[in-house]
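Before a computer can learn anything about folding, someone has to put a protein's shape into writing. The outcome of that step, for a single protein, is printed below:
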Amino acid sequence: MGRMTTTAADSASGHGNTPTDGRPAGTGPGGNGGPAPEPTDENVWLEEIYGEEQLAWVKEQNSRTEDLLEDADYAELEGSILEVLDSTDRIAMVGKRGDWYYNFWKDRENPKGLWRRTTWESYCTDSPEWDVLLDVDALAATEGEEWVFHGATFLRPAAGEPYRHALLALSPDGGDANRYREFDVESRTFVDPAAGGFDLPTAKGNVSWLDADTLLVSSTADGLPKTASSYARTGVTLERGGTLAAAPRLFEVPEHHMMAVVAHDSTPGFERTFAVDYIDFFNRTTLVLRDGSWVAIDVPTDVNVSAHREWLLFRPQRDWALDGTTYPAGALLAANFEDYLAGGRDLVVLFTPDAHTSLQSWSWTRNFLLLNLLRDVSSEIRVLDPSRPADAADGSFGDGSAWAPTLLDACPPLHDVNAYAVDDEDDSAADGGAGDDFWLVATGFTTPSTLMRGTLERGRDDAGTPGVVSRHTEVKSSPSFFSDAEYEVQQHFAVSDDGTRVPYFQVSSHNLPLDGQNPTQLSGYGGFEVSRTPAYSGTVGRAWLERRTTGLELDGGEAPHSRGGVYVVANIRGGGEYGPAWHRAALQENRHKAYEDFAAVARDLISRGVTSRERLGCVGGSNGGLLVGNMLTRYPELFRAVSCGVPLLDMRRYTKLSAGHSWIAEYGDPDVAEQWEYIRTFSPYHLLKDGIEYPETFIWTATSDDRVGPVQARKMAARMLAMGIPNVWFHEALEGGHAGASDNRQAAALQARSQHFLWKALAGGTS
């Protein structure tokens, strides 16, 4: 199709115009030494999320967008995506509690889902027999509430007893606020509050079992105070039959900190109660309750701490100087828990990062520690044995690990593979004792996900070398949802403005013609130390790779044959692909480096002949929405189309909207004049200018998103429409939370709109 067009008359907001003084909309002198001024904002009225006039505007914009996108091709695409999401052949991932394996499942017949369980023997069959504990669709129909299931927290039973009671987290709209209700898995019923059953009002927060009749609760319900980030400021002790309002305060943090969390570790022999003062996203203080008083674990606030049995683990976000030794950011260190609290500082190094390798996560089995690493964004897994010190033979890793490491042979190149414990506390005879069993989940862009289960034990490998021996076998595999054998995955490196090499993955058909005419979708995130790794997506395969152009006009005439889409994932700074240093390189005043990296990948795709400006689009959500919003406003010459989801865009007021205050550590504080001076350079809402040819733009969000919120998306679309910028489209799902969807049907519609918009803009036709 040709370009999608609209005019200022389509806006219909009638609430003011953009400034006409020649500056980017809404900007002005920042000044120093005082609070930053509030730029003119003609769309503040849209910040009332559930106002009648505001929702009328939303519905009008939804209607025009649906009229554009929901054609016959869209209907077919949405049905194809829904078929993937509803497939009964997907892997039903499980978590073990006692002798049962629990799963939450959605499909066409159960759009809100089933919480269910089965035995290991049954799970290993092609058609497990599931014991359904809760039908969320039936619950929603009975109670007249659109419940969204957000997980279960079990009470540890007495020795020899089965797991029976759990707190279920249920969101009324898919947002982050949950209602916690006690559930009995044996009777398959909620425990009646009149009989003392726990039933906590809907709010943001967390809960933890202290014992059978006591909860530790961090909540904003019943008048409990909130932080400026909208999260819980206190932790309380809630007795069965009591109320949150009357519950004794156990822990409290300052209002300007991000949130308070209290939790109990019920591991037999290592029972401990913890509190965490989350100062911001990257700084926290962890405390343990001793003799009725809180004792802080003495580390810098940017050192992440976790406890497991007798061990404390530390992962510093910045280099940590301690007693004459400097431990690098991204390392993993260990100490004996009690010795460290008593003042000992005998730390052992378990992992040291290098220029290519970073630690992503770790998991304890009963006797071993699994490290999930990335080496140039491909997975590597090591198993450490705390009982055996490393020796010279273990030096091949070059990171000086104090515990003997063994490489787990399970990671093909350009794949994402993660290992984690099945049940580190299971030493029973049943199941053969699963304490050292682990799950292994492997996936790649063209490799359907596979679930394996393995066992670790001390022994010797085939060469007779002592170490940890692993046996793992396949349990389940996901089906192929597209012709994945017809596509190949390549990794390339672009060079950013400051010379940094930035990796990216390219998924395309074999023998891709490098003539610059391939419709290409570039995706990224670049924030909060989140890594974008290879992952199989039936949606991307069907909605992008397998779609075919028809009659695509090239410079030399008609295309000689139809072609499919190219899918690209950029591993830009701000993410966690190379550890904390990669993240910190794009924080606050250095945020522009993430955008320079993404633009460098776009230029590299164009220079290599993969695509051209007319065939290149980008997509991102949340922080990724801010990323592509900056592509729209800072690099419009590189992209034909932008799909911007649940985004941050108004960086002057983001701290005042939803949970935005909690992200100051990532972006900076716009209320501080000196910080607003750099924040304004990546605030898309304030970078819009008259006379610029902007890419075709689709902005999408959800009314019930209580994390980022729908406000910034609304205001950006309204400003662009009022400026008369053509080809601007907006859609707001009326439920679904930050994910934009609370069931598979909504998820399919959301993904179909984004994918169809990009295809129409970049490919000019479908088949």
User: Anything to note?
Assistant: The radius of gyration is 26 Å. The chain is about 20% helix and 30% strand.
